[in-house]
């Protein structure tokens, strides 16, 4: 394999990384509800919505994934392009400007580059390329773009990965970023004030460092919370956590910040496949389609019957018969996609992020009503105060 020079760093060209197995079915219908003051719902307005409205995708565009930042949204198209809309004060839309966009606009990826995964942080953005590199753009005050500088970027730049490393997945918090390598290791960069980088140092990193996973442990999934938390799902279905933990956000039964990974106290016999992190709470999806919750609960985001703080993961009560395939969280609300294409939502609702036509907090998961034009949902994501849904148009068959 030939070596090439990328952004001043010698990197080894990797074979093409396959499309992720958990990628959503391509959808030509994207919906959003909740806060929209910066256009993050993509409907061409800045009007707050208390029920899902349609994102204005161009005809023929199909999305396989969405990711929500604080007030901006990313969409990954079925042909490997990245679209972005919403707030852009730090260049997080990646279009070369700092102009707000109320409808999806293309991110300026380098020529010939396609993306396979995306992640939106508070006001920065990440994408994994088809050859296993990572692009970053937007706010960079804490080195969260991983390019060795603290300069904001209005167009994507390559993260300075260690030589020979290829990446399959990324996650973005407020001021730090995570990446999963093809051999199951975890990289981290950006702010480390609370131990977010997981290398035991509390030293801000403008380029990626390896997280100190336990010996012999490999990871299969990631999440980065906007409150300064980091998570990794292990290949054995356990959950590692590090970073901020003042109200039990890491799920280890304590309120001690952790500078290296510790195991979350999962219920006996439970294994998990996904994790999602909000500002002060988190969700994990079990291998049999249940949802575990922990952290803060002041807005009902953990579900019914929970106290104000939950330091260890517990199962939340879902509607009878519901089996979950995907999870997502906003700042203080929670989302779950069921295997039959329904969207469950609960928690904070002051901006309409639950999508039930009201602005009243909901502590029990309930089905989000989708527009008549929407068939089964295929994906969920969240902004801080908004919810994002991918769905098949009613009456259509799934695209391959």
UniProtKB/TrEMBL annotation:
Residues 30-50 are annotated as: Disordered. Transmembrane segments: none annotated. GO terms for biological process: protein ubiquitination; ubiquitin-dependent protein catabolic process. GO terms for molecular function: ubiquitin protein ligase activity. Residues 33-45 have a biased composition (Polar residues). GO terms for cellular component: cytoplasm. Residues 32-371 form the RCC1-like domain. InterPro entries: Quinoprot_gluc/sorb_DH_b-prop (IPR011041), RCC1-like_dom (IPR058923), RCC1/BLIP-II (IPR009091), Reg_chr_condens (IPR000408), Ub-ligase/GTPase-reg (IPR051709). It holds the Pfam family WD40_RLD. Keywords: Repeat. This is Cell wall anchor protein. The lineage of its organism: Bacteria, Bacillati, Actinomycetota, Actinomycetes, Streptosporangiales.
């Amino acid at each position: 394999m030939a070596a090439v020079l990328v952004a001043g760093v010698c990197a080894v060209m990797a074979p093409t990384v396959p499309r992720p197995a958990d990628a959503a079915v391509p959808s030509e219908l994207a919906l959003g509800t909740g806060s929209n003051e910066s256009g993050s719902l993509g409907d061409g307005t800045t009007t707050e919505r208390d029920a899902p409205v349609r994102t204005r995708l161009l005809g023929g565009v199909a999305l396989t994934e969405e990711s929500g930042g604080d007030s901006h949204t990313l969409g990954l198209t079925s042909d490997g392009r990245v679209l972005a809309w919403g707030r852009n004060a730090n260049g997080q839309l990646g279009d070369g400007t700092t102009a707000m966009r109320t409808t999806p606009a293309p991110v300026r990826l380098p020529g010939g580059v396609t993306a396979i995964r995306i992640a939106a942080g508070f006001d920065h953005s990440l994408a994994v390329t088809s050859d296993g590199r990572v692009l970053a753009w937007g706010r960079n005050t804490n080195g969260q773009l991983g390019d060795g500088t603290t300069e904001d970027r209005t167009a994507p730049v390559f993260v300075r990965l260690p030589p020979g490393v290829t990446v399959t997945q990324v996650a973005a918090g407020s001021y730090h970023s995570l990446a999963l390598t093809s051999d199951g290791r975890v990289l981290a960069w950006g702010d480390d004030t609370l131990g977010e980088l997981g290398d035991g140092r509390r030293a801000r990193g403008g380029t990626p460092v390896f997280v100190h996973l336990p010996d012999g442990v490999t990871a299969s999934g990631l999440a980065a919370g906007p409150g300064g938390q980091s998570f990794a799902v292990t290949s054995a279905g356990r959950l590692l956590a590090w970073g901020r933990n003042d109200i039990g956000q890491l799920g280890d039964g304590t309120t001690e910040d952790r500078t290296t990974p510790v195991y979350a106290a999962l219920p006996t016999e439970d294994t998990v496949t996904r994790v999602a992190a909000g500002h002060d709470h988190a969700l994990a999806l079990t291998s049999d389609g249940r949802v575990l919750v922990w952290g803060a609960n002041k807005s009902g985001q953990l579900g019914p019957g929970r106290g104000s703080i939950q330091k260890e993961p517990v199962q939340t009560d879902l509607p009878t018969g519901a089996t979950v395939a995907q999870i997502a969280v906003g700042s203080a609300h929670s989302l779950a996609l069921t295997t039959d294409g329904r969207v469950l939502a609960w928690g904070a609702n002051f901006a309409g992020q639950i999508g039930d036509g009201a602005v009243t907090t909901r502590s029990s998961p309930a089905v989000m009503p989708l527009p008549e034009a929407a068939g089964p949902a295929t994906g969920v994501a969240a902004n801080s105060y908004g919810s994002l849904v991918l769905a098949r148009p009613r009456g259509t068959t799934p695209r391959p």
